[in-house]
Amino acid sequence: MNKRFALALDLVNDEQLIAEYEKYHEAVWPEILQSIAGAGITQMEIYRLGNRLFMIMEVDDSFSFERKGQMDAENPKVQEWEKLMWKYQDALPMAQPGEKWLLMDKIFDLKAQLSQ
C-alpha cells in the first residue's frame, strides 16, 4: 500500500523568479525524473499559492527519506538540479540551515473520521 507525504517550501517572492521556476518544472530534467522514480516515489504533485509550495508524494514500500537523501547526495545531476533550484527557493522560517522541503503533519482525514 502506498504512503502519502505532504511537504512545504517557499519560493523567493519575485514574480520573474517564480515564473522561471515554474518553467523548469514544465520539463524537469530526465535524470531528475529517473531519480525520483528510482527512490520509490510513485506519484508527485506540486501546487503553488503565491510563493508557497505544497508537494504531495505517494511512495511505495522501498521509499525512505534517508535512502532518497543518500541517493541524491551521490548523484551529480541531482546535485546540479538542487543547486539551480536554490536560486528560486526560500526555506521556511522554521527550517534548519540547509533544509528545503519540510514534512507537514496531517491533522485531518475525512475517510478516517467517517469510518468511526
Automatic annotation (TrEMBL):
Specify one Pfam family: rhaM
Q: Where is the chain membrane-spanning?
A: none
The record's annotation in InterPro entries points to:
Carb_Metab_Mutarotase, Dimeric_a/b-barrel, Rham/fucose_mutarotase
Question: Know the name of this protein?
Answer: L-rhamnose mutarotase
Protein species of origin: Flectobacillus rivi
